């Protein structure tokens, strides 16, 4: 994990106060001037092959791969395992919970940003929350989500391929299909 793979964060006063306005302007290449100026070329941008960037891309890929079954296989599993009458209720509960999850995540993430990043390494934060150098404990949400996902994954792996009542529900759903089809309707018209 990135938090434990780096040294303790130390925000220096020099980062904030000693930088002159001209140095700040060099860092803002293209703002209020042409992009072709020499100052913009002098500062090399960090490479996109940075290990943390690649770790981020890997995490997003795993997130996408992991959420795909929830929306495709999970919806089908619900639909085939309950009665036709109860299916919309379960699918609505599924939709509501998957909608509120990100909202709750934003609020919890906002709360976690009020906790100092290295709270486990320092007794008391060296800077105030209002200081621009403040870095919140953004990583706690990812750690908690990973642990929760692992704890939930093991019981889910124990699910049967189909629930015991699924065959009966499917047979009942097939019997509810109208006997007449469009083809029969066309024959009756002629």
Automatic annotation (TrEMBL):
A GO cellular component annotated for this chain's UniProt record is: basolateral plasma membrane
Q: Which domain of life is it from?
A: Eukaryota
**How is the protein disposed in the membrane?**
Multi-pass membrane protein
- An example Gene Ontology biological process: sodium-independent organic anion transport
The record's section on PROSITE patterns has: MFS
Gene Ontology MF, one: sodium-independent organic anion transmembrane transporter activity
TM annotation in the entry = 52-78, 90-116, 136-160
Localization: Membrane
Give the UniProt keywords, A-Z: Disulfide bond, Membrane, Transmembrane, Transmembrane helix
Occurrences of domain Major facilitator superfamily (MFS) profile (ranges): 1-190
Supply the InterPro entries for this chain: MFS_dom, MFS_trans_sf, OATP
Q: Which Pfam families does the record match to this protein?
A: OATP
What is the name of this protein? Major facilitator superfamily (MFS) profile domain-containing protein
